[in-house]
Amino acid sequence: MILRKYAFFLILPILLSCTPRDKRQKIVFWQFWELPVIQPQIEAFEKTHPQYKVEVEQLTWQNGFDKIVAAFASGQVPDLCELGSTWAPQFASEGVLLEVTDGVRTMKDTYLMWEPVTVGGKIYGFPWVVGTRALFYNKSLFAKAGLDSTKPPETWLELFNDAKKIKALGKDFYGYGENAGERHILYKKFLPFAWSNLGSVLSPDGKKAVLNSPENKEALEFLVSLLPYAMIERQDALDQGFKQGKIGLLVSGAWLLRTIPQDAPDLRYGVALIPKPDKERGIHASFLGGEMLVVPLKAKNSVGAINLVQFLIQDNNAGALAKAVKTVQPATREAPQDPYFSQDPYQKVFLEQARTAVHPPPHPKWVVMQEVLNDALEQAFYKKKTPGQALDEANARIDSLLVAP
Amino acid sequence: MRVRQTFLFLSPWLLTLAAFYLFPVIYSFVLSLLNFNPLNPSATTWAGLANYTRAFTDPLLRRAAFNTLYFVAGTVPVTTILALVLAILLNRSLPGQTFFRAGFFVPTLVSMVVLSLVFKQLYAQDGILNQALSLLGIQGKAWLLDERTALPGIMLMDVWSAIGYYMLLFLAGLQAIPRELYEAASMDGSSKLSQVFQITLPHLRPVALVVIVVNTIRSFQVFIEVFVMTRGGPLNSTLTVVYDLYERAFYRFEMGYASAIAYLLFAVIFLVSLAQARFLRLGQPVGG
Amino acid sequence: MMKRFLLWAVVFLAFLFSSFPLFWMLFLSLKTQGRFGLQNYFDLMASGPFARYVLNSLVVALFVVLGNVTLAAMTGYAFARKSFRGREVLFATVLGTLMIPKQATMIPVFILMTRLHLLDTYAALILPFLVDGFSILLIRQYLLSLPPDLEEAARLDGASELRVFWQVVMPLAKPALAVVAINAFLVNWNSFIYPLILTSRQAMRTLPVGLALYAQGEHSLDWGHLMSGSALSALPIFVVFLLFSRQIISGLTQGAVKG
Fold it and tell me: Which residue among C8, C179, C242 places its CB closest to the CB of B172?
């Protein structure tokens, strides 16, 4: 009798210990892609690494960054975080990310785009996917203007002439799409031309501004010369204009590859490398951007995070992500060998462009410099200053930034 | 006994204030005296009043202040008057009254983010606005890309979206006015218009305080429209104080300076509200 | 007669002007792949957690409305009718809280919620907004525009302060309370930045955040889904508005006060 009364208390602890408590280590992962896209990879990771449980959070593109900043400010950081390549240098130079230099020594050469997370020779993160900009052109408009639709422009002069011919088609047509009125974007459209002309923002040692070099001035003057034949609008309006068949040539990103089939399935278009100054001069440069994966220094589970990173950036996984979203490509050097990329006429060009794309100087004050550059570009586009004047002034401002503490 | 009861009535606010406002307000005030980088809180250094003195010599902030004042001066009076007129008109029996009231209020139902996105499209080179204008033979342009029309464009949208909301507040205020006053005045032979001035407006003073002060406060803090539509451009013509503050905090990571700007803005708003209350004698009970 | 018609015409034109962009939104919400239909709406409702987002928004909004209509009203009443030491100063704090931009207090609030272990809870989304400065202000101002005679009468009849408040003041303040309800619902329903920062799990997301995640890509906007989501989102507020605006318009007339 008494035994029966106490039996319950004896069984209870046994029952309790049998409760399936999640003994797996938690990895908190903040990223920007839609859950249906990232979930399969998370599940695959958990299967091959059963000791981990990943908590994924999707951030919004518009304001997700605010949340990341708030997290760092309060110390409540995720274990693994996706950061845009333009944001990463700031975080890296503040010393709030885990240093992984030694760990990545062997894999370094198999990936592009380490610059955003490299400070003073030390590496603080991993490249995940790249996104560059290429030249989109409307084949129907080319044909209409009497141009060979299989020959997109390769030099600046060709670009200028093609744009002019297409603009001549009528009031509602534009030869080129020029960005305006949007901060944080303008410089991404100018720098490719500057870099193609072998100009740069800072001197190789990063101590002096060379923004007003003749090469850069030439590049800006070229862009300004395109204005009369261009639609001048924001990026999304330009994208829309291109989809509507109004713009002949536009520098844009791979996201168009995703939205054109949805919004303009009948559009006949092509993708080409960004033109270089001359057949003999310069390179086909573009803007190299993308997404990095970083581990905050204060992460609770940095070991788990590292495991997750290494899984995610593998060619097949990053590739799966790229194929699902179509707006980026894997950061691995071997990506072009994947038939998906090598056989798709558009993806192929983007990958090729990524190889000659340049990343802005990973200087901790780049965010401020970029604004100075944007101001100068706006001044030139709105005809407040000549390209030369605008760049001279910007150069002086950046020089003073470099000497300031 | 009296005091204890009053305390009871005030306790919800006291609790909320203590729990959710005191800490953030003091915290951000302290931040304004520091060089605080949110990415790296441990590297914080003392700045004293440096952030504040910097604010007074910052050309960008000066531009933002000018734009913001322009915005407030241009939207608050217009919104207030239009809302008042609409409320008075829709307070009497007009066919379709409820329908109209609902219709005017509808812009308020949609989130400002979405409204801004919609207007961004509307104002585009080949957006609906220009299409409508071309029917009238007027050539439109990309309104948000011209430094002279970008801010007015945003102001127009702001007025459009706010009228219905303040109209509602005025409608509520109109309910407190005894109908007999109007009846008596009519019997005395005064016109509808003079009744508005003699009876309606004086009785609406307390509610008008809410409308004007709140509208002013919110206008000084205009942010979302700028964030979604123009990001401060072109050429800083739509840069507002709160947007500048936000960029400094979250893009430049100068949170101390951003906090100083916030408190300077607070001081300005406070003084303006005080002036409004005093000048318009809006704080007193009716008949006082 | 002509004057009345002109008046009506002006109002009607203003109404068109006011509602036109919204008709356009509805139009956009019905377009998918160049065709018309309700597909966007179906997509949205089928996209898993959408119902959960609506539920979360509803729960939060409901509590905030309740809180403001009762607690904030109490405070507004105290400011309007009671005199006590420090009344002006305390009222200044009410206004003060409206004057500090959210962007400046965002991070401290986040830190506060973290310390209180309230992240990812309904509490974080409800408590700070339960007693809003605007509600207090509106109630106070509205009461100031009413003569205190009825309350005096009730007090002379021997009613306790609480009874005076609940049975005399609240019914009198119906129009203002209706506005407070509509406003509280509205502000919270469309609130974006705080829910974004204060919640992490998908299960705790509110509607505006869910919609942004769903329809706003890095470089592209899914207009069809964004508009349909906004239309669906606007529906509950519209219902609240219709319900409460009746209270505003048919508020108790002051005919009870003789003399």
Answer: C179
